[in-house]
Amino acid sequence: MHPNALLDLATDLLRQVLKFDQPADAVVSAFFRKHRALGQRERHALAETTYAVLRRRLRYAHLAQSGSGALERRLAALGWQGGEAMLRSALGANERTWLAEVQAVDVAGLPEKLRHNLPDWLAAPLKAELGEDFWPLVEAIEQPAPLDLRTNILKTRREDAAAALAAAGIEAVPTPYSPWGMRVQGKPALQKAEAFVRGDIEVQDEGSQLLALLLAPRRGEMVVDFCAGAGGKTLALGAMMRNTGRLYAFDVSGHRLDALKPRLARSGLSNVYPAQIAHERDDRIKRLAGKIDRVLVDAPCSGLGTLRRNPDLKWRQSPQALAELGAKQRAILASAARLVKPGGRLVYATCSVLRSENEAVAEEFAQAHPDFQAVPAAEALAAVQVPDAESLDRGGFLRLWPHRHQTDGFFAAVWQRQG
């Protein structure tokens, strides 16, 4: 494809994504379905350019003011990820001059907002929380996330899965905390790898794997994944249970649970029972009250811990949406807690970096439920041989950050119900 035509497509794609009326990944997928003739390299250039613009939107919009022509074309040029030679041949002489001028601007001299590229409502609590560590976080979330994999311990060992991937030309290194995890750089064609097709590996962030390790289900137990979604953690829990006992995967979305079916088939698990529920007070929940050994509540949240993967979230979320999520999180946690039997374990988790969705919800729950005793995250992780568990614990809670732990941002609180 001629470079200018590809830049035109990038301009068109950005125009659609920047409406923010749908998640960016859904818009990009629909765009590629419409343009089926695009090759792998062209798709990569378009997608990565789009995400680069989303990551640095405020800065690029500021720099783009000085040019001429369509704003989205200038944004695409600033965020271009398809190679410098291709971009130069796509731009006219005036555009090349303009681009050289704005690329020479010293970013350090720009206003703070244009350096951190976050909306005020998000920057303020993160700065208050992190202090000097705020800027390393900014740097981390401006980079694309690596690809983390989980070994299916029901079928293979991590070293054998890594060897199978190496034979397919994919280099995977062990993750530092999860005993099942492997990390891959770039975006290899994983779906075609035999290890993936066989169900030996699954795509799952190391932080998400640590949530399953916190719950630590045992053989023969009754376990509930309360907000199972597409089932990444469900599959990890089922493997930990060695395919015994009963593992209920509840979710209000049948569409999300449908996405679990092919993964479940690959996994070799037969102890998983997916079930769509109407709401957190569904009759199925009432029937299981006080009978469940372990309950994981990976609550609906802002997703702001995943900004390396989903940079559009910082522009699509709002303080009003956060307030609505907070009410939902509290209701779901209180309802899920009723399932836990005396002596059982409850884990509340989010993929958010905000205290309002994390510590605030956990502390409020603990005050209202004195029969649930806190279990320090470091203690729970050390019990399942997670190395350096102390470094993952802050104030008794699991707290993961992209710049500190190279995972997505995650939070979890652990309780044991008293007899």
Description:
The protein is of the alpha/beta class. It has 21 helices and 13 strands. The strands form two sheets. Strands 5, 6, 7, 8, 9, 10, 11, 12 and 13 form a nine-stranded mixed sheet that branches. The termini are far apart.
Coarse morphology = globular
Low-confidence parts:
none
Please count the beta strands (DSSP E, at least 2 residues each).
13
Characterize the biggest β-sheet: 9 strands, mixed
Instruction: Please give the radius of gyration in angstroms.
Output: 23 Å
The number of helical segments is 21
Distance between the termini: 68 Å
Structural class: alpha/beta
Residue-averaged pLDDT, rounded?
Answer: 96
Roughly what fraction of the amino acids lie in strands?
15-25%
Percent helix range = 40-55%
What attributes characterize this protein structure?
419 residues, alpha/beta, 9-stranded mixed beta sheet, 13 strands, 47% helix, globular
Question: What is the gist of this entry?
Answer:
By secondary structure, this protein is α/β, with parallel strands linked by helices. The protein has helices at residues 3-17, 24-34, 40-55, 57-64, 71-78, 84-90, 93-103, 112-116, 120-130, 134-141, 158-167, 194-197, 206-215, 232-240, 254-267, 283-287, 313-316, 319-337, 359-368, 377-383, 402-405, and strands spanning 147-151, 173-174, 181-184, 201-203, 222-225, 246-251, 272-276, 292-298, 340-350, 372-374, 393-394, 397-400, 410-417.
